[in-house]
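User: Here's a structure from my thesis project, written as structure tokens. My advisor, Dr. K., wants to see whether a designed sequence matches the one we expressed. Can you design one independently, without my sequence as a hint?
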């Protein structure tokens, strides 16, 4: 199976494991009733399924019925013509990303920076610290809610990976995770480092450690997206290589 199809099928599986998965024609909508963020609640097409304008209309209605913003993320090649249908229905492109992939043979694991510890969160207090650090790194001055903690706990319980970075002063400097693998494929996401701890090799070490743990558990292919040139270089240094394109698109 082509890597694009494998990545897209892994997204379908990930959304199908949400607390409230909804199948809507050729789409799977992954919903979490406890979290309203559109980055958690979105849809993706089933690879190769034919899609019509009527299917898009039904998808929008499904999102509205659950009080969520209609939004999709998908590998572009998995649904030719879908973008045109969505634009005709009033959707607007949020972002276009090139995704990168890593295999056990390409992974390079650097040592953790001096004084920093990389470990899996073992308690709910750890999980809250991880998510709070992610929020801070992404510019949100909010602490983790119980729903956030439950999401990380569920991810770990289902075979995913979460890693937190403990700074020399004992605080959580950042964190990230990988979703439970599907057919050997998993997305690495949420890589975040608080500003005072950046440019020390923390992000690269954390990304590599998450990926290493994923492969140690039987994963075959890890993928992620870079938010800019700096993160792109970080991921390439630990063995990730560009492989395909994804689209983020939503209806206000």
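Assistant: Designed independently from the structure alone:
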């Amino acid at each position: 199976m082509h890597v694009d199809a494998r990545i897209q099928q892994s997204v379908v599986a990930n959304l199908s494991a949400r607390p409230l998965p909804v199948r809507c024609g050729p789409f799977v909508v992954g919903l979490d009733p406890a979290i309203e963020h559109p980055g958690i609640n979105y849809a993706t097409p089933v690879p190769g399924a034919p899609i019509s304008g009527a299917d898009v209309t039904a998808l929008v209605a499904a999102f509205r019925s659950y009080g969520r913003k209609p939004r999709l993320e998908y590998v572009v090649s998995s649904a030719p013509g879908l973008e045109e249908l969505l634009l005709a229905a009033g959707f607007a492109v949020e972002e276009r990303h090139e995704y990168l992939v890593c295999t056990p043979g390409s992974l390079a694991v650097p040592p953790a920076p001096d004084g920093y510890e990389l470990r899996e969160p073992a308690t709910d207090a750890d999980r809250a610290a991880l998510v709070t650090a992610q929020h801070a790194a992404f510019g949100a001055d909010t602490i983790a809610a119980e729903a956030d903690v439950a999401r990380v706990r569920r991810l770990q319980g289902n075979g995913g990976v979460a890693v937190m970075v403990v700074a020399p002063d004992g605080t959580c400097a950042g964190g990230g995770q990988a979703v439970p693998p599907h057919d050997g494929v998993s997305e690495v996401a949420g890589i975040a480092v608080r500003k005072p701890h950046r440019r020390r090799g923390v992000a690269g070490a954390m990304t590599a450690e998450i990926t290493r743990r994923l492969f140690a558990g039987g994963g075959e292919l890890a993928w992620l997206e870079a938010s800019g040139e700096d993160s792109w270089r970080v991921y390439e240094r630990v063995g990730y290589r560009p492989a395909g394109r994804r689209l983020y698109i939503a209806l206000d």
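When you compare it with your expressed construct, this may help: The chain has a mean pLDDT of 95.
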